[in-house]
Specification:
379 residues; alpha+beta; Phosphorylase Kinase, domain 1; five-stranded antiparallel beta sheet
Length: 379
C-alpha cells in the first residue's frame, strides 16, 4: 500500500478583494457591466484584451518564480461595446426556461427555449451572494467568452443581470459532457478517441497560441458534445490571462485530481499543465475509469495519498492487456510526462503519428453514442 508522505502542501489562493457594485439593475465589476440588456466591456478594456492576443507566447519558464511582465497600451477611451454579433445575440425576455440540466459552484445550468427562433440554449445562472473567488470566476469566464471565436469552444450568446443573478447564454450541447458518455456508453473505439483528442487539442491550440490562456480545469466533464458530433471546451471560470505572469501562475483552481504534478506541488506552471490534464482525460475516456487508484469501498488511495501518488509515482499507462495501438500509447506517454519541459504543446501533439493514423472525417460521436449508451443521449 502506498503511504501518504506528510510533507506535501498545496497552495491555496488568498481571498480575492476585487470589489463589485450593483447600481440601477446593473452588475459592475471593473470594466465589465451586465444588465438586463446584456453585457458590455469598456472599450479600453476590450482593447487591452485584444492587445494580449497579439503577443507571442514564450517558451514555458523554469520553476524559478521569476515574473514576466508585458506593457500594454495606455488607452483611455470609455466607449462601451456589445459582446456578440447582433445577429447572434439574444434577449433574456425571449428565453423560456425548460428545466435544470446541470449544477456547479455558485449556480445551475438550465435548458432554455429562444421563443422567436425556436432555438435551444444553455443558460448558466449564477447567484451573486457568492464568495469573492466565485465573483472573480464570473468575470474571468465572461471576459474569456467575450473574445473566444473558435468552433472548438462552446459559443457565447450574451449575458444578463436580473433578479440578483447573472445569466450567461451559451450554445446548447445536446450530447452533454464526455464524463456522462464515459459512464453510460460501451467502450469508445480508438478511432473516436482520436476524434475527441483532435478536436480538444484544436481548442487548446486556440486557447494557448491565439488567446494566451491557460484553462486550468480540463477534465471530461468540461468537454461537451454537440448533436453534430463536435467536441468543444467549456467552463472558463478558472481560465487565466497569461499577460503578466506567464512564468509564475501559482494558484488553486480547477479539479485537483486532474492537475499536473507541478501544480499540485505549488510550482510555476504554463499552458503545458493543460496538456497533462487533457492526456489524463483522454486516458480516462479510453479506460472508462480514472487512471489513478482512487478511494472506493474496495480500497484505493484517499485524497492526500492520491496527490502524493501523482507527484511521486510514474505517470499512468494503458494496461498491456488492452488492445490499444502503439501510437495511442505513445501519444499518452508524451502528454503525461512528469517533467513539463518534456511535454509537447497542443500544436505538436496535433502532428503526432496517432493523429495521422485514423481518418476521423466520418466520425460522429453523437450518433455513435445514440447507439451505444445505456441511457439515451438527451435531445
Amino acid at each position: 500500500m502506498y503511504r501518504k508522505k506528510k510533507n506535501l502542501t498545496v497552495a491555496a489562493p488568498a481571498e480575492d478583494q476585487t470589489s463589485y457594485s450593483l447600481s440601477g439593475g446593473v452588475f459592475k465589476e471593473g470594466d465589465l457591466s451586465v444588465g438586463q440588456d446584456g453585457l458590455n466591456i469598456a472599450d479600453h478594456a476590450a482593447k487591452l484584451l485584444a492587445a494580449v492576443t497579439e503577443l507571442s507566447l514564450d517558451e514555458p519558464a523554469d520553476d524559478d518564480n521569476e515574473e514576466f511582465s508585458i506593457d500594454l497600451p495606455n488607452v483611455q477611451s470609455d466607449t462601451s461595446l456589445g459582446v456578440v454579433n447582433p445577429s447572434e445575440a439574444v434577449q433574456l425576455n425571449d428565453l423560456q426556461r425548460l428545466g435544470v440540466v446541470g449544477r456547479g459552484a455558485g449556480g445551475v445550468v438550465q435548458r432554455a427555449l429562444h421563443v422567436p427562433t425556436g432555438r435551444i440554449f444553455a443558460l448558466k445562472i449564477i447567484q451573486l451572494d457568492v464568495t469573492p473567488q466565485v465573483r472573480k470566476q464570473i468575470l474571468l469566464e465572461l471576459t474569456t467568452l467575450y473574445k473566444a471565436q473558435s468552433p472548438y469552444i462552446v459559443k457565447f450568446h450574451g449575458a444578463f443581470f436580473s433578479e440578483g443573478s447573472i445569466s450567461i447564454c451559451l450554445e446548447y450541447m445536446e450530447g452533454g459532457a464526455l464524463s456522462d458518455l464515459c459512464q453510460k456508453s460501451g467502450r469508445i473505439p480508438e478511432k473516436y478517441l482520436c476524434h475527441i483528442a483532435e478536436q480538444g487539442l484544436r481548442g487548446l491550440q486556440y486557447m494557448h497560441k491565439d488567446r494566451h490562456l491557460i484553462h486550468r480545469d480540463i477534465k471530461p466533464s468540461n468537454l461537451l458534445l454537440s448533436s453534430t458530433g463536435a467536441v468543444k471546451i467549456s467552463d472558463f471560470g478558472v481560465s487565466g490571462q497569461l499577460a503578466s505572469t506567464i512564468s509564475s501562475c501559482v494558484s488553486w483552481v480547477g479539479t485537483v485530481t486532474y492537475m499536473s504534478p507541478e501544480r499540485i506541488q505549488g510550482k510555476s506552471y504554463s499552458v503545458l499543465s493543460d496538456i497533462w490534464s487533457f492526456g489524463l482525460s483522454v486516458m480516462e475516456l479510453a479506460l472508462h475509469a480514472f487512471p489513478y487508484p482512487i478511494k472506493t469501498e474496495e480500497g484505493g488511495l484517499g485524497f492526500w495519498e492520491l496527490l502524493d501518488y501523482i507527484v511521486d509515482q510514474p505517470a499512468p499507462v494503458l494496461p498491456a492487456s488492452e488492445s490499444f495501438s502503439p501510437e495511442f500509447r505513445d501519444f499518452l506517454r508524451l502528454s503525461l510526462q512528469k517533467n513539463p519541459k518534456n511535454r509537447p504543446t497542443a500544436s505538436e501533439l496535433l502532428q503526432h503519428p496517432w493523429m495521422q493514423m485514423h481518418d476521423t472525417s466520418d466520425c460522429n460521436l453523437f450518433e455513435w453514442a445514440r447507439h451505444n449508451v445505456v441511457e439515451p443521449v438527451r435531445n
